[in-house]
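Dear Dr. H.,

I hope your travels went smoothly. While you were away I took the liberty of generating a structure for the chain from your last submission, since the lab meeting agenda had it listed for discussion. I wanted you to have the full record in hand beforehand rather than looking at slides cold. The sequence, exactly as received, is reproduced here:
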Amino acid sequence: METSPQVTVYLQALQLRIIVGGCWKRQVTWPVEAREALRVVAEEQWQELHLESRELGQWDSSLLVFLVQVASFAQKRGLMFRTTLPEGLERMLKLAFAVPPKAGAGRIVSSENYFARVGGAVLELVPHVAEFLSFLGETTFSFCRLVTGKTQMRSQDLFFAMHECGIQALPIISLTSLLFGLILAFVGAVQLTQFGAQIYVAGLVGIGMLRVMGAIMVGVVMSGRVGASYAALIGTMQVNEEVDALSTLGVSPHDFLVLPRVLALMSMVPLLTLYADLMGIAGGFLVGTLMLHLNPLEYLNATVEMVPFKHVIVGLVYSTTFGAIVALFGCFHGIRCGRSAQAVGQATTTAVVHSIVGIIVATALITIICNVLDV
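The corresponding predicted structure, in token form, is as follows:
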């Protein structure tokens, strides 16, 4: 019949004897004497330690862990160490100390306060910002080479990128803008109807879409559709070492890969924004005529009278900025992508997140500037 694990401690002058016996299994908790033995070895003053066994039954790694801990405490204190154990247990105990532990290999648990973690995160941003500024400088030089006629950009790459981010994006832009204009008109109608001012829904939708909301909708859609595509495409080329091959052949990756995509988005996003504005106004038109029972001509005339042309110009400024942000972040994270499939996925996700955050920050800055300039 199996017995529980047993530990007996004998104190003889300056010699400490620890005797193990019984059945040692991982499912069985160590006896209290085992904890006491570890404390005695670690704290009391002894010159010699003797490990032995008596009536030892079945055992597994549980016993070996206990013996290793005892032996480790003895080694740290420089005690004379002798063992009288079964042959298999003797071999495994010697094997446990055959190779000394590598310095720094153990896991170090460090606890930092909140301010230390925030400060570390801020310091980690510095090299990333410097890297992005370097990328922005290279792109600027590529644009200068385009102006002087020395660029290595191919015109067919530019036309292909314009087709990809222009015509192919019309269906999703149509759907999102039409629904957003419809939602904006419906939300405004809920309040304006209480005052009998339903006609002002036309001005609300027109100014909202033309000034900023149309550009934001297009920017967010393009960041998820095109910005992610740029990051994945260039990142895959980085994994396959195609970008390195271009540099080896003397072709600038910024001229060949980045510049046509930046120009395509900066030129097509404003056009898509104008189209999105029209679709948003159409959504408001549907709400005004079908739900608010406004005369169609009256709604169109109110839109023309209430919406100054300056809002169109402001919306184009927003959209051009958003196109540059989406293209730059998409290409930047693709260029700096790692050399694995996982890195491509991370680059794609990061490009979308940074593009949307950049759009929000740019919207706030341009809005403040417009308010200061009273535009």
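Two observations you may find useful: The longest helix spans residues 200-239. The radius of gyration is 36 Å.

With kind regards,
E. W.
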